[in-house]
Write a structure and sequence with these properties.
Order of helices and strands: EEEEHEHH
Shape: elongated
Strand order of the largest sheet: 1-2-3-4-5
Number of helices: 3
Distance between the termini: 106 Å
Strand content: 25-35%
Structural class: alpha+beta
């Protein structure tokens, strides 16, 4: 006598996805995006990567090899940022466009503001 054959379930193999949004080293928020522009190349065949923070307005451009993924670009930028060799700028229009409209001040700006307030109280 024959039995019914058991059906085998196909195993679903899910590959882990790479992150697309990263932590900004300037404002510590999860708002940094990396875009690799494959249409723009330099004479060595490197692609142009654009790094932007939607919260503080951090903006940087760098040339990366064709094999790099956004994760690799982020870590390369992070290494240069920590060393102090990264070329970046803070674009105010990106920071002004965020919801809430609150302005974040650096430590130096806060200290300067307190000094001005103290001078006004003493007079």
């Amino acid at each position: 006598m024959g039995r019914r054959r058991k059906r085998r379930k196909k195993l679903l193999i899910r590959r882990p996805t790479m992150p697309t949004v990263f932590r900004c080293p300037n404002c510590e928020m999860e708002a940094l995006t990396v875009e690799i522009n494959k249409k723009e190349r330099n004479e060595f065949g490197y692609y142009k990567a654009i790094i932007r923070c939607g919260n503080c307005g951090l903006y940087a451009e760098m040339w990366v090899p064709p094999i790099y993924q956004p994760v690799d670009v982020y870590h390369k930028f992070l290494d240069e940022f920590v060393k102090g060799t990264a070329k970046y700028e803070i674009r105010k229009e990106a920071a002004a466009g965020k919801a809430g409209g609150e302005k974040r001040l650096s430590l130096e700006e806060l200290l300067e503001g307190e000094e001005h307030e103290m001078e006004g109280e003493g007079s």
